Amino acid sequence: MNQPPITIMIIDDHVVIRSGLRMLIEHDQRMQVVAQAGNRIEALERAAGSRPDVIILDLLLGDEDGLSFLPELCQASPNSRVLVLTGVQSADAHRRAIRRGALGIVLKEHAAEQLLKAIIKVHEGEVWIERSMMGSMIQELNKPTQVDPEVTKIKSLTDREREVIALIGEGLKNKQVGERLFISETTVTHHLSSVFDKLDVNDRLELIIYAFRHGLAKIPK
Q: How does residue 220 score in pLDDT terms, banded at 50, 70 and 90?
């Protein structure tokens, strides 16, 4: 039985770029572009109307900043997953985009295949951050301190929670973590909720960065 196509909305202020992205995306039979927008007002209206699976958002929209209305975009279409496609190299901008609701970031300089792969992964609920970006984020956060205030938090983790964190750091999804540890996906979710509370992190990306910074997971080579 054929799966329905992944529905996609493109937000970019350049018509030519939107047209090119549409041609690229719809060349893959697994995907279909259902809406386009060039500014904030169009983006919010068309996201609410089309409710796409994935929204591709450029951070720079002429005089507007995609970061500024990203939370509104997520509210306009709550089940959509936002993938940022940008030429902005700032690690701070990337981190803020994730914290405001984006599930992934792809740089415009990379190959088209990267974008298509990212769309699929984000649609599946995975965070898509390329290793070079992740390294920049970790380096920016990894400032030495005389006393590490996180020691108490880390000591509160159970052995099982540490195992879950290490596997999340390898890029595994909850189901895969459960299979590796011979526990249910629901149990993995419960462990992650406990980990988020103990380490005071808000989401999967913050957990991964925290784990790399404090040696709870190995940074990919």
A: low
Beta bridge partners of 7: 32
- The pTM is what? 0.67
Report yes or no on 1 lying in a domain: no
pLDDT at 144 over 60: no
Handedness of CA 129, 167, 175, 184 (dihedral sign): negative
Cα gap 153→4, rounded to integer Å: 44
Q: Which of the pair, 112 or 45, is modelled with greater confidence?
A: 45
**Residue 139: is its pLDDT beyond 70?**
no
Kindly tell me the burial class for residue 128, based on how many C-beta atoms sit within 10 Å of its own C-beta (0-12, 13-18, 19 or more): buried
Domain coverage including residue 50:
6-138
Final residue of a domain: which of 104, 138, 172?
A: 138
Inside any domain, residue 163: yes
Q: Are 71 and 24 in contact (CB under 8 A)?
A: no
Q: Which residue has the higher pLDDT, 88 or 216?
A: 216
- Which residue did the predictor score with more confidence, 214 or 55? 55
pLDDT attached to residue 145: 47
Residue 133 lies inside a defined structural domain of this protein = yes
DSSP-derived secondary structure for 57-123: E-SEETTEEGGGGHHHHHHHSTT-EEEEEES---HHHHHHHHHTTEEEEEETTS-HHHHHHHHHHHH
Q: In what side-by-side order are the strands of the sheet with 6-11?
A: 31-37, 6-11, 54-57, 81-86, 102-107, 128-129
